[in-house]
TrEMBL record:
Highest taxon of the lineage: Archaea
Molecular functions per Gene Ontology: catalytic activity, acting on DNA; DNA binding; hydrolase activity; iron-sulfur cluster binding
Listed name of the protein: Radical SAM superfamily enzyme with C-terminal helix-hairpin-helix motif
Gene3D superfamilies in the record: Photosystem II 12 kDa extrinsic protein, tm_1862 like domain
Keywords linked to the UniProt accession: DNA damage, DNA repair
Length: 594
């Protein structure tokens, strides 16, 4: 076991020794080690709520903005000089914690050794907070067990870190009571802390702000840390809208409403939907940030849709009307096996989840430029844009009661969705992490480890049999993906993603300059990624690599195209391809010599 975090109690003020530390003179460094929780994401290009709320709490407690420095862990790795801010601050706050496993392209979460180094480097007071309070694994991976460690920090916030920070500053850095913040506080802190986004390395263009609408959950799944926040408590629409307003003033154009267990339950009694609250939230956001470029969500509970289908349909319509295309409602089915469902207190059956998939497809599966009543649409006649809102499916392995049949049942569920003509935007398959305080902590990672081989085989099967054809249905050749941010090169291909919830990985032939954004058109499909060419593709300028990426164009045809340039029109080239080139290929008007 790791050493237990220190329990701190506030002394009566008159009992505090020495002179109080004046907030106006305090220098504070916030280090973001990133978070990934079941309902909260904060690995770049995302910025979680923690650094924003923490900065707001500091300002509210009297610390001047100019004395608050914010670094990401990647920022510290990239420039060792920044460690000086960790060393010299009067107060150093570390924020982090991964309570779901994942692999990330946009940033690398802090490792326990780095977190320990932060504590050792800090000459001032050090405080650690965020989901790290739930436990720390040896690595951020599935099938691991975790325990809580204090990693040598002076203080560990076991309630809300932003409340701890506020109280700590108010108490002259002497201590605080562990507590949760209330709605008034979070409303103020969210607005006042928006300025900190200016210091994020991805600011302003490649940054997406995770927004919180509620915490806690009405259900109690065995593996999940969300119920540790209690029953749901909602932030009223004006407080979220006010925060978006402030973030937008600081240049943020991309938003994800991701910090909640179930967006459909927003503003209701904890379980049933309240479409009026959803309308206020979504239309309010559009009003204060009319130029936003991304508005996506995360997490929708399928059981809400099944139990309140009419209100849910209305809620989904409101979301699809206000969001941006490519949005995903991630459903936590976790297992299609009734035995696993029973033993882990999962709240939705495969049949119910299928019903929810159907309803989201019918209400949100339309594409910009077409009649929403036609949803779900795919095939030759569908507009070449991503659908507005589709379900995603989360499946979790290593849960209590898991058996070989579990894998077969999950496959059968996915096949049924495909065969009956519905779309899934994403299938997420993971292995369980066991956290103290959840029911899974007794079982630990034992079942996940026993089933590792089975898991690998099944994952491959899902990728090949379902993901690939499903992706072709969701994003057929010619589908335009605007603003793909180019992130890295591999084997002569440039890879990038749009900003948004679970964006598709896009491979573009050739090595293009990184850091820029370009519009692309999909030409081919992998399991979870697409091949695309710049949109529109100019037949008079396209490279050989770009031309051969189009199905039906081999290298000899591509060579002929290049040799026979220029063309007046695409038809002039007389190409015989399986994809409709008119969707994305053009010819630049030829310059004429007078
Ligand atoms: S429904 Fe289950 S998995 Fe989802 S947030 Fe609630 S407890 Fe967690």
């Amino acid at each position: 076991m790791g050493s237990l975090a220190r329990v701190v109690t506030v002394l009566p003020l008159e009992a505090l020794p020495g002179v109080m530390t004046d907030p106006e003179t305090l220098s504070v460094t916030i280090v973001d080690g990133y978070v990934d929780e079941p309902a909260h994401f904060g690995v770049p290009p995302y910025i979680s709520t923690y650094p924003r709320y923490t900065a707001g709490a500091l300002v509210d407690a009297g610390v001047p903005r100019e004395q608050i420095t914010y670094h990401t862990i990647d920022g510290l790795r990239d420039d060792p000089d920044r460690w000086r801010d960790v060393d010299e601050a009067d107060l150093m706050i570390y924020l982090g914690g991964m309570t779901v496993p994942g692999k990330y392209v946009g940033g690398t979460p802090a490792e326990p050794d780095e977190v320990r180094k932060l504590a050792w480097t800090a000459s001032g007071t050090s405080l650690m907070g965020g989901p790290v309070k739930f436990g720390v694994g040896d690595e951020n991976a599935g099938a691991t067990e975790t325990e809580r460690q204090d990693l040598d920090f002076d203080f560990v916030a076991k309630g809300d870190v932003e409340a701890a920070v506020f109280d700590l500053v108010e108490n002259g850095l002497e201590g605080f009571n562990n507590r949760m913040r209330d709605v008034d506080e979070v409303s103020r802190w969210a607005r006042e802390g928006a300025f900190v986004v200016d210091q994020h390395p991805n600011h302003p263009d490649h940054l997406i702000a995770e927004l919180e609408t509620s915490r806690g959950c009405a259900y109690r799944c065995s593996f999940c840390t969300e119920p540790l926040y209690g029953n749901p408590s909602f932030r009223p629409p004006p407080t979220v809208v006010g925060e978006v307003d402030a973030l937008s003033d600081h240049g943020v154009k991309h938003f994800r409403i991701g910090r909640q267990a179930d967006i459909l339950a927003y503003g209701g009694d904890g379980e049933a939907p309240n479409p009026d609250a959803l309308r206020q939230l979504y239309s309010g956001i559009r009003e204060v940030a009319p130029d936003l470029e991304t508005l996506h969500l995360d997490n929708m509970n399928p059981i809400t849709i099944v139990e309140w289908p009419e209100q849910s349909r209305e809620g989904i319509r409101i979301i699809a009307e206000h969001n941006t295309p490519g949005d995903t409602a991630a459903f936590g089915l976790e297992s299609a096996d009734p035995v696993v469902q029973e033993e882990n207190n999962l709240n939705v059956s495969a049949e119910e989840c299928f019903e929810a998939v159907r309803i989201v497809n019918e209400e949100g599966g339309w594409r910009p430029g077409e009649d929403p009543d036609d949803a779900p649409t795919f095939g030759d006649d569908a507009p070449r844009r991503l659908p507005k809102l589709l379900p995603g499916i989360n499946l979790l392995h290593g849960l209590k009661g898991e058996r070989e049949e579990t894998y077969e049942r999950n496959m059968a569920f996915l096949r049924r969705v495909y065969d009956e003509g519905y779309m899934l935007r994403r299938i997420n398959i993971r292995q369980v992490m066991a956290f103290d305080g959840t029911d899974m902590s007794d079982t630990g990672a034992e079942i996940a480890n026993e089933h590792k081989k089975l898991f690998k085989r099944y994952k491959k099967q899902v990728r090949e049999e379902i993901d690939n054809p499903m992706l072709e249905r969701v994003a057929p050749p010619g589908t335009v993906l605007p603003d793909v941010h180019l992130e890295y090169h591999q084997d002569g291909t440039t890879f990038g993603r749009q900003l948004g919830t679970y964006p598709l990985l896009v491979g573009i032939p050739g090595e293009r300059a990184l850091g820029q954004t370009i519009d692309v058109a999909v030409v081919d499909h992998g399991y979870r990624s697409v091949t695309a060419v710049p949109y529109p593709l100019d037949l008079n300028a396209a490279s050989m690599d770009e031309l051969t990426a189009i199905p039906g164009i081999g290298s000899s045809t591509a060579g002929d195209i290049v040799v026979d340039r220029p063309y007046e029109s695409v038809a002039d080239a007389g190409l015989d391809t399986t994809v409709d080139l008119s969707q994305f290929v053009t010819t630049r008007p030829l310059e004429r010599v007078n």
